[in-house]
Amino acid sequence: MEKQEVRDCLDRGMFDEALRVVPLKDIPQFRIIGSKYNILPDIYRILEKENIEAYSFFDVFSGSAVVGRFFKKMFSVISNDNLYFSYILQRALIVINKCPSFSNLNFDNIPKDPKERVYRILHYLNNLKGVEGFIYRHYTPASKDADGVERKYFTTENGMKIDAIRIQIQEWFENGYISEDEYFYLLASLLLAVQKIANTSGTYGAFNKFWDARSYKPLTLRYIEIIPSKFNHVAYNEDIFDLLEKVTCDIAYIDPPYNSRQYITNYHLLETIAKYDNPKIKGKTGIREYGDQERSVFCSKKGVQDAFFKLVKGLKAKYIVISYNSEGLLSKNQIIQILDEGGLRDIRFYEIPYRRFKSNNNSRKNIVGEYLFIGVKENGEL
Ligand SMILES: C[S@@+](CC[C@H](N)C(=O)[O-])C[C@H]1O[C@@H](n2cnc3c(N)ncnc32)[C@H](O)[C@@H]1O
Predict the structure, then answer these.
(1) 285 CA → ligand 1 middle, Å
(2) Which end of the chain has the lower number of beta carbons within 10 A, N or C?
(3) Average per-residue pLDDT for the chain
């Protein structure tokens, strides 16, 4: 395919096998602050333009796992995030290369074809009778009785469904009926379903006062397309500073939090559904107790510059690629200085404009920039 044709495909949001990246239609959109879903084509285009030759791609701050999924046919992906819900998404969306067989789960007349089998299992889970469990008790209007605060994250029906499904998946896993891959596949499908019916404006730092239309939809687990890849992929659930020594890669892609909003406070409820560990919770929003390992230094105005430098210095990579929002805690010049002092060569800078939020108002105020920096660390060439 000619370069211009490739560009045209990218511009139209069309990706195919020849491009070696995963089509956007096969990448589930997850509502997370700083998601790179909308600029995946731009990142691809820039790597292409810079002619970066690489085998392994380290998605240092994976979040919704969309970046690793997009590149899983092109590189061997190593991904990481300190939040467990992200780890679940990484395992399902990146690491799994072939349709889980669910060979130990036997229902009456369960189909032999792996895909059909998955549909049948999802259908079974979607039709479980609701359970009055942790989510129902603390995150639906039933919380008024349990905690004296009425929380409206989920309708009572959906809260009970989340509990029933979460408990069933755990039971199957603990009794050896499903493998680890199958376990993470089902949990990811649950997380993706949850964010479609949550009564929030995107994060879980608050719930809406009135019920949004989305919250009345019944929670429905859906089939997640499996993307085959000739590469092996690996996922981690660690603080990045505990991982630096363990990973060597060609490209290290750094997409850290860019403002002071901690992910653990904004996604506490996803973390609780992911871990299902009956945490201590408090306050109007029912936030779970969390510790230093879940708090990010990249959200601290005081600590971010040193942390960034330590990260750039410590990563064992040929190329460093950084995404950062133009309205972030660090300025463009501060980042360039960090890269420079961190010993990087051939530093390149791009600015990708995108709309901050959907609006009929086309004023420039709604356009923000996503910065992309590329630098060469060791043995690489631009
Ligand atoms: C901007 S988001 C990444 C978004 C991701 N690229 C996407 O498109 O969905 C930053 C992520 O960094 C994670 N994070 C923050 N500090 C971390 C740390 N010290 N170690 C590992 N992960 C961290 C957060 O949990 C969050 O998921």
Answers:
(1) 22
(2) N
(3) 92
